[in-house]
Amino acid sequence: MSPDTHRATAAAILPLVGGPDNITSVAHCMTRLRIGLRDRALVQDESLKALPAVLGVVDDDTYQIVLGPGAVARVTPEFEALVEEGRAGEPRAAEPPRPVTAAGLADRGAALREARKARNATPLKLFLRRVANIFVPLIPALIGCGIIAGLAGVLTNLGWLPTLVPALAAIASGFMSLIAVFVGYNTAKEFGGTAILGGAVAAIIVFPGVAKIEAFGEHLSPGQGGVLGALAAAYLAVRVERLCRRWVPEALDALVTPTLTVLVAGLATLFGLMFLAGEVSAAIGAFATWLLAHGGAFAGLVLGGLFLPLVMLGLHQALIPIHTTLIEQNGYTVLLPILAMAGAGQVGAAIAVYVRLPRNRSLRTTIRSALPAGFLGVGEPLIYGVSLPLGRPFVTACVGGAAGGAFVGLFNQLGVAFGSTAIGPSGWALFPLLHGGSGMGPTLAIYGGGLAVGYLVGFLATYFFGFTRQMLADLDTDPDPEPTSTTEPAKQPALT
C-alpha cells in the first residue's frame, strides 16, 4: 500500500471517531490503532467496521481499531498528523464514500465481543491490560534483537564471519541488558507518574554496584528481579510521587518531589523489591520448566486450547511479562511456541469454512485476505471476521490449537525443550526466533509438526463439527450477488 492509501485510511477513520477534538491519545500495538476518546457516543461503530481497511473494533479502556500488522504502524502516524492538523484548523481530507459490505457476520461478532467484554471488565483484568500496555511498545525491539541473536548463533555454529559475531551479540544483548529501565519508564508513564523517574528507579536494578549491597542475608546481583522488579519499583515511584505532589509546597516541588521519589522508591527496591521479585521470577521459571517436563502434553493441550479466547479478549498481552522473564533467565520462552499453535488451529478452521461455503463470495473473500496474516500468527482478522461471528468454528479452532499445543508439549515432556528468543511473532514468523538445546533440526521439525497438527485438526474439526444444517443453509449462499447495487445487509445466520 502506498503512503496515500495509508493517509486515506486515516482520513476515513478520523471523522468516524468524533473528529480531532474527540481524540485524547493515539498509540498502536502490533495490529491495533488505540485511541483515547473524550466522548464515546460520537464513535460510529458500524461505519468504522464497514471501511475496507478495518478488520474489527474492540471497545476497551482505549478504543481499538484492528488494522493488521504492518498497516497499523503506517496508518498511525498519518492519523496523528491529521489530528494535529485538525486541531490547528488546517483542512482535512474528505471522508471517502461508505463502502457496501456484507455486515451480517461482523454485526454478530461485535455483539459477542460486547457481551464478553461486559462480563470480563473486572478490576483485575483491567489492571492486567494496563500492565500489558507497558510491554507492547517494547515488542519491536524484542523482535529485532531476538532475530539478530539467532543470526549470531547460526554464524557461530557454522564458523562463519567470526569477527562479526561479537558485534552481533553486542547489538542483540544491549537492549536486553537495559530492558528494566525501559519497563520502569513505561510503567510510570502508564500509571500517571513522571516517566523518567520511573526509569531512574528501575535503573538501580541493573546497576553493577548493587552487588555490594546485602538484603535478606544475601548480596544482591545486578539484574535481580528483572522486569518484574522494575515494574514494581516504578509503580511504587508513581505512588510516592503522587503523595509528594499532594503534600510538598509548590515552591519546593521541583527539588523535593523527584528527590524523595527516587530515594524512597530506590531504598525499597534495594532492600525489598529486588529480592522479592527475584524469588518470584525464579519461581516462574522453575514452574514453567516443571510443568512442561512432567505434564507437557496436557499442559500444551490446555495452553493451546485456551489461548484464542485470551486473544479475543485482549488478555494475551498480560503474558508478556512472563515471556520476558523466561527470556531473561533462559534466553528463550518455552511457552510461546505452544501458544502459537492456537493460530494454527484458527488457520485450519478458516480453510474449512472456505471449503464448506463455496457460494458465499463475501466470506470467502474475507478469508483469502486474512489467511496470509493468519499464517504469520496474527489471528485477530480471522477471529473477528470469520470464526467468532460464526460461533462453532471458533470452538473448533480452539480444538486445533489444543492439538498442536499437545504435540509440542509432548516433545518438551520427552526432553526436547525449545522456545522463542523474542516475543511478538507467531506462526511461520516464529521460525527465525526458535532456539533449543537439541539443535536447530529437531527444534524446527517439532515446531513445524505442531503447526501441521494444528492446521489439520482445526480443519477437520471445523469441517465435520463446525456447522449445523441450518447454518449451512443460511451461509452457503451469495449474500451480495450484485455488489455494485446492493445496499441491504446480509441475512443473519442461525448460530447454534
From TrEMBL:
Pfam families: PTS_EIIB, PTS_EIIC
Topological category with respect to the lipid bilayer: Multi-pass membrane protein
Subcellular location: Cell membrane
Keywords, ordered alphabetically: Cell membrane, Kinase, Membrane, Phosphotransferase system, Sugar transport, Transferase, Transmembrane, Transmembrane helix, Transport
Record domain PTS EIIB type-1: where: 7-89
Active site, per annotation: 29 (phosphocysteine intermediate)
Domain of life: Bacteria
Residue ranges of the region described as Disordered: 476-496
InterPro entries on file: Glu_permease_IIB, PTrfase_EIIB_Cys, PTS_EIIC, PTS_EIIC_1, PTS_IIB_1, PTS_Sugar-Specific_Components
Domain PTS EIIC type-1 as annotated: residue spans: 129-481
PANTHER family: PHOSPHOTRANSFERASE SYSTEM TRANSPORT PROTEIN, PTS SYSTEM N-ACETYLMURAMIC ACID-SPECIFIC EIIBC COMPONENT
UniProt protein name: PTS transporter subunit EIIC
